[in-house]
Structure formats: C-alpha cells, structure tokens
Amino acid sequence: MMLHQTLWKLERDTRTLEEWGAQTTELVSGRMSKHNKKVKDAVSDFMNFFMVTPVDMDPSGIVKKLDRSLKDQKTRFGIFVETHSDEKDPEMRANLEDGLGGAWVVNYLSKVVRHYVEIVRKYKNPYIAIPIQMQLPMIMDFAKSYMKATESICNGDPIGDGIGPYIAAHLIGDSEPIEIKGDEMVYSEKEINGRKCIITKARGPGSRVGDPGKGMEKLIEKYKPTRIITIDAAGKLEGEKLGGVAEGVGVAMGGPGVERFYIEEKTTTHGIPIDAVVVKMKPEEAILAMREEILDAAPKAIELITQAVGRANQGDNVIILGVGNTCGVGNNKPALDEAEKKIRKNAKKLKKEEENDGKEKKSFLDKINPFSASLN
Predict the structure, then answer these.
(1) How far is CA 167 from CA 62, 111, 206, 255, 289, in A?
(2) CA-wise closest residue to 201 among 234, 175, 167, 233
C-alpha cells in the first residue's frame, strides 16, 4: 500500500512537471516565431542539448577549460535563436536565449524525475522511492519558479538577480556608459566622496550577465584601482528577511566560479581589497520577477557602497561592479523608470498568484503525506 501510494503521488507530480516542460517549450517557441510551426519541433529537439564538463582529474587549467565549454554553450544558444527566431532586436534575442535556458531546466528536471519514477516502478523498491518523494516538493518549487522565470525573461521583465545591475545603473546616473567590447559589459566614470568610481554592469536591457571576469581584468589594468566593490543578490536563509542588505568581503558572485576566478586572480596579483554588498532573497526569487522588497533594498545598499568608497584614499580609483542578470534593466538612471514600473506591476501580480496557489484544493493523500507539506 505504501509503495502504491508513493508511486501514485510520484506519477502525478511527474506528469505535472512534464506539462510544465511542454508549456515552457511552447512559450519559447511561440515567442521565437508565431508563424513557423517547425520552430516548436526545433525547440523540442533542443531540449536534449547537453554540455560535457571538462576532465578534472588534473585540476591544473580546469577554469580555462570550463570557461571554453561555457562560452561554446552560450554561442550555441545564440546561434539557435538567430537561426529560428523572427526577432531582429538584439536585446530581445538575448531574452530569448535565456528563456530557452529556462525551458531547458524545466524539461531536464521532468526527465530526471521520470527516470527515477520508472526505476521505482521497475524494481518495486520503496527505499528508492522515499528519497525522491522527500525531495520532490523542493524540485517542484524549483521547476515552477523556472517556468515563471522563463515567461518573465521572455517578456524582458526585471528579475530578482537584477538588483546588482539596477544599483549600478542608478549609480551611473544620467551619463551614457561606454561598452567594453567583446565582454557584453558597460562602464562609466563618476565621482563619489572625492574618489573616481568606475561603475560597471552587464549591458542591458537584454537578459545578460556579461563576462565580468574578463571585463574587470581590462578595467583593473586601465584604472589601477585601490579598492573594488561588488554588489549582487545572495541566497537568504529560511527565516531571514527578504530584501535584507548585508556587507562583507570578497567577490559577491554566483555561478560556476569562472568569472570570479579571473577577478580574484587579478586582485590578488595587485593586492586590491574587495568589498561585497548583497541583497538577500531565496534562490527562486532571484530568477522570478523582482519583488518590491528587493527593489526597496536599493537605497540601503547604495548607502553601504558609499561608505565602502570612503575607505579608499582621496583621489584613488574605485571600481564598483553590479553583478547579475540585467534583464529589463537599462544602462543608466533614466532607463530605470520603465524598469521600476514593471517591477511594481509584476510584484502585485506575483502576490496575487501566490494567494491563489494557496487556495488550491489538495487530495486526501496529499493531506496525510508529510512530504507534501511544503508544496504551495
């Protein structure tokens, strides 16, 4: 009875995951081309895309190998969108590339869960089923977040991870920033507290994170800064306040670590101290449409950045790096008016959706299942 109950629950949630995968695939293909029916098949086939990670038995040079693989992957996504999309705007194409990545995540999760469900069914082993059942609520929450994130990114809406670029654009002010060629980054000079600050971020408003490692290497060589400040979103612990602001040291940057490696190498060679300012949120909230609590944390973060700039000597150069996905976030303060309107609007919509999710009816088996308590 326990095995049959578990299999029923696993099968139901797996089908839900597969439906979400189909929905995200249809969403992306529809945004790429509304008239070409073959695009949907092409996107479905692309959901089987994979990247073989470099051999790490001998760790020497592994960062450069991984960097090469990630660049090749990004290039392939770009070629696919360019080949199959009717969109001509490069900023919208950037959104579609990341939207395609979001759909890939949802589809991949559904395939992995389906694999384990079939293993349980084949061997009728409850000890394989129980760990999956325990983790499934978290997997479902993660997949649902990516499904919603795919839509937000395809729409060009600012997401939680964009708080770093948002703050950088605010600090840049009214000036038009300069592009760092080849690295999808922009920067601008501005005086703060008597120090020349070089403020940089990924080029927006398309969905990009840029190549901050390579871009920062160029800026460090050009400006010889005595201090670097990084701003990013950071995963909060359960019980911590959404939108809480904290400061520390080191390169505030997530991801596989390739870009952070380049920055750490350069700053270690030149003996440059690094300050970090972060805005806290759940990992899911980083990929969803930005909440008002995250946006409202910007003034506090800017206050801490200003204090950090003051730790450099008068006349010194300071680099301020806004880390994160700049989807929906332009490159200077005037471009933020539209972004803020979208954030306020989407935040209300998100709250309403969550209220409706909480009203969904649960089956009797869900109510007695201890592992389903965290769902919705």
Answers:
(1) 33, 38, 16, 20, 16
(2) 167
The full DSSP string for 331-365 is: SSGGGHHHHHHHHHHHHHHHHHHHHHHHT----HH
- Compute the Cα dihedral for 91, 153, 328, 179 and give only its sign: negative
- Kindly report the CATH number that applies to the domain delimited by 160-336: 3.40.50
Residue spans of the domains in the chain: they are: 2-155, 160-336
Would you state the pLDDT for residue 217? 96
Q: Residue 132: name the closest of 14, 234, 253 by CA.
A: 14
Residue in 216, 202, 197, 209 with CA at minimum distance from that of residue 266 = 216
> Distance (Å, rounded) from C-alpha 28 to C-alpha 128?
34
| C-beta neighbour count of 10 within 10 angstroms | 21
What pLDDT is attached to residue 352? 82
User: What mean pLDDT comes out for the span 192-218?
Assistant: 95
Q: What is the reported pLDDT for 373?
A: 47
The band of 375, judged by pLDDT with boundaries at 50, 70 and 90, is: very low
Cα 95 to Cα 31: distance, rounded to the nearest angstrom: 10
Instruction: State the pLDDT confidence band at 376, using cuts at 50, 70 and 90.
Output: very low
| Section 331-351 average pLDDT | 89
